[in-house]
Amino acid sequence: MITLVVLLLAFGITLFIQRLVKKQVYVAQAGRIAMAVMLILTGVSHFIFTKGMSLMLPQFLPKRELIVWLTGVLEILGAIGLLVSKTQRLTSILIIIFFVSILPSNIYASLHHVNYQTATFDGKGPEYLWIRIPMQIVFILWVWYFGYKKERQTVSSQKGEQ
To answer: Are 140 and 100 in contact (CB under 8 A)?
Structure first.
């Protein structure tokens, strides 16, 4: 849930700063910045909560901690890619694929009551999926709308101002 709060706060703060500094609002840019902030937060958390996040992966997977680190790096790279105009469209597609691909680990973690912050099995359980799955859909739609769909409009409007 904190990821959604971070996303929305970063979006609001970015819009406010744009209005204050540039006297205009670039909604698509604010949306990408907000998602980048969220991805950096979640990416860094892969290094802080490595042990707990490795419990979110099925036992049969080898080198689960390495997988957690790699996905953390991917999230940080995705954040950077969203902020670079030449890569944001491709990055958006890759982030959407990433979000779809990590959903099974969230389902697995919920079914096994994984608490990734404490690396224990006293987490919220399956009821967490009622929040997590809709949030994952929001994240996917957010990236599609602000990163993929709105990419050309933002770039062309910014070029016209120069």
So the answer is: yes
Per the CB < 8 A criterion, the answer to whether 4 and 135 are in contact is yes
The residues spanned by each domain of the chain are: 2-150
Question: Exposed, middle or buried by CB within 10 Å (0-12, 13-18, 19+), for 122?
Answer: exposed
pTM, 2 dp:
0.87
List CB contacts of 49: < 8 A, sequence separation 6 or more. 116, 117, 119
Residue length of the chain? 162
Closest CA to 31 of 141, 118, 157, 119: 141
Are the CB atoms for 95 and 147 separated by under 8 Å?
Answer: yes
Structural tokens at position 60: 């049969």
Instruction: Name residue 120's beta-bridge partners.
Output: 115
Alpha-carbon separation of residue 6 from 36, 39, 40, 104 (angstroms): 10, 10, 11, 23
pLDDT in tens, 28-49: 999 999 999 999 999 999 999 9
